[in-house]
Structures are given as structure tokens and as C-alpha cells.
Amino acid sequence: MTGITHLPADTSPEKIKDVIEDQGGVIIDNLISPDKIKRISEELAPYLEAGEFGREDFGGFQTKRIGALMAKSPECHDLALHPLVNAACDLTLRPYCDSYQLHFTQAVSISKDEGAQTLHRDRGVWGPYLNRSIETQFSTIWAISEFTKENGATQFVPGSHKWDKNRTATEDEIAYAEMSPGSVLLYNGTVFHGGGANTTDKNRLGVLLHYTLNWLRQEENQYLSCPPDIAAKLPSELRRLMGYSLGGPTLGFYSTPGAPGEGRDLAPPEYLFGEKPRKPRIFDTKRVDANFNLHETTE
């Protein structure tokens, strides 16, 4: 079994990108402080206590999952916007998009007697319609509690993002994302992984924040999980990350209902909050290669 590479918190985004390209994922140790971990735990505790266990095998019968974290946990805002994570995400996803967006937010608490989750690739949420040459996702699992093999640390199959799509993992090819609180597992959307089995008496708590290309449908509908009246109270940078911005020149505009002459038509989402839209990357439609790829201008 090949283990998961661990890197220190001062690692460069370029190094993180290189390891993810080679192995499918990497653990960054001790990226956030114990005080922040404590505050995140306190914010999530009421929701987890009131939440219900899953009702199907994939989600787990002894696992609780809480979504809409951008609306429920202010401390998780900093995780979503963490500079090192976003820099590595940008390097990983930018070859396939003009920007990326927050795809999925969830707190996952795995309890005693939970079994191992089926190994899977996250890109499967879009079905078989995307070419494997396009990387769809940059994912994070933040350890809020300690992650051990015994308490449900994430199963992870290094290098499986390079496998033929029909190959399955053997037991000796599975590694475990064992890490201390405050550390984070970063991985792409093509590598095999899954929640681990918990054979201890303590819950294993992680925060999952995943990013994807801004032209793909998000797994979690951010506009319902965090509607405009709540999003208005968030930092503009976070709103844009959630998708309250245009993807390219036109993707994601809105029009308001009303009588003739009232409201807006074909407006960028930033106008909802009195902001100017950010300038999209500009492509030269006259420069198209044999695969019909547009090339960014040098201006």
C-alpha cells in the first residue's frame, strides 16, 4: 500500500498541484489553528445534534451530514477562502475554465459502528458526459477532529485518477487519510476515495468544501442553501465563489420580474448587491485550434 503524502503548511501551491497531479491528492498538516477548530466545532454542534442519521448505504446509517455551511457557519467562510487552498485550486482547475466556484459544502460526522463507504470518484455526479481529460473538481476534507483508520479516516487510493475507468481497487491499494485536527486532505475529482469505517466510541468530524469549474452545475444549489438575503451579509469574495457572479461573459445572468420598465434584464448577479461585475477572461474567437479550443488573448 502506498501512503498519502503529507506536506507542511508553508508548502507552495505549485508543489501541492504537482503532488495532486501525480498521486491524486495530498494532506497539508496543521493548516488552521486549534482555536479555529474549536469555534467551528461549536458552530456545528447544534446542527449535528439536531440532525438525523443517514437512511441509505452510501450516505451511511450512522453518519450525520449537514449542508449549507456558508449560511450556518461563519468560521467555515475562512476555510472556503483559505489563500493556500484557493491558490492550489486555481492552478489545478484554471486550465479548464475562466474561474471556479464552490460546488459542495458539508459537515460529516461518522459515528460508532458505521461501515466503510463505497469507493467512488466525485466526478460521477455529472454522469459519463465529461471527457476524462478535463479535471472537474478540487476537493477538501478538513479534519475538525482527529482522523485515524479506526475512527473513519477517509479511504484514499493514490494514483487511481490515472487508472482505466473500469479498474477497481484492491484492499492493499487503499490508504487512509490519517491526520491531526486542523489538517486538510486536498484531492481531485477523479481519484477513488470514500468515508472509512468507525470502530471506536468517538465521532469523526470533517468539513467538506469542494470546488468545480464555473460552467458546471453545482452539486449543492448554493442559491437555495444561501439565498440572496443571506448572501448579502457575506463577503463579496465569498459570494462570487458561491456563484453569485458571471461564468465567462454571460453564464449566470438574471432578470427580475415586474411591470414593463421595472427591474433589470440580463444583469450580472453582482448587481443584486450593488457591486460591479468582475471582468471575465477574454478569448479571441479568431484563434481556434484543431480541437475547437479558444485561446486567451494576450491583451
Query: How many H/I helical runs?
Result: 8
Helix content: 10-25%
Oligomer: single chain
Report the C-alpha radius of gyration, rounded: 20 Å
Order of helices and strands: EHEHEHHHEEEEEEEHHHEE
The CATH architecture of the domain at 6-213 comes to: Sandwich
Task: Describe the protein.
It comes from Candidatus Phaeomarinibacter ectocarpi. It contains eight helices and twelve strands. The protein has 299 residues and is α+β, with helices and mostly antiparallel strands. It has a domain at 6-213: q2cbj1_9rhob like domain (Jelly Rolls, Sandwich). Strands 1-2-8-5-10-4-3 form a seven-stranded mixed beta sheet. Strand 1 (6-7), helix 1 (13-23) and strand 2 (25-28) form a beta-alpha-beta unit. Helix 1 (13-23) packs across helix 5. The protein starts with 5 loop residues before the first strand and ends with a strand.
Supply the key terms.
299 residues; alpha+beta; Jelly Rolls; 7-stranded mixed sheet; 3-stranded antiparallel sheet; 22% helix; globular; disordered C terminus
What secondary-structure arrangement, pairings included, does this model have?
Blueprint: E1 6-7, H1 13-23, E2 25-28, H2 34-50, E3 63-66, H3 69-72, H4 74-80, H5 83-93, E4 100-110, E5 137-143, E6 155-156, E7 175-176, E8 184-188, E9 193-194, E10 204-213, H6 222-225, H7 228-231, H8 236-242, E11 283-288, E12 294-296
Parallel strand pairs: 1-2
Antiparallel strand pairs: 2-8, 3-4, 4-10, 5-8, 5-10, 6-7, 6-9, 11-12
Helix pairs in contact: 1-5
Organism: Candidatus Phaeomarinibacter ectocarpi
Keywords: Iron, Metal-binding
GO molecular function: 2-oxoglutarate-dependent dioxygenase activity; iron ion binding
